[in-house]
User: What shape does this take?
Amino acid sequence: MHAILAEFGLPTHYPEELEKLADEIDDRISADEIARREDFRDITTFTIDPADAKDFDDALSIRPVGENRWEVGVHIADVTYYVQEESIIEAEGRERATSVYLVDRTIPVSYTHLR
Assistant: This one.
């Protein structure tokens, strides 16, 4: 696996400065921010990520919207509330572009895997 990492120049860790910044991110959302958004918390929603996933950021929801009619929602986590444009966290994510899955490890794109 190390040869694959080296051959493709894949990162094996995050810069220390980035890890410190990620630890400082407040994961609470203000009442004002919640009021600006559509609230799906009362809708039956379930993750489609496996139990051993590093994060649960993909989900489906379902709710009745009329007689014999159902709405299926597709939900994908959006970190833009937490990650500011032009920050080193955003730059690192842009540089990585996607997670890489190898036989013995995952090299994540997202800072959320740090927590």
Residues 110-115 have pLDDT under 50 and may be disordered. The chain is about 25% helix and 20% strand. Strands lie at 45-47, 58-66, 69-76, 100-101, 106-107. The CA atoms of residues 11 and 113 lie 14 Å apart.
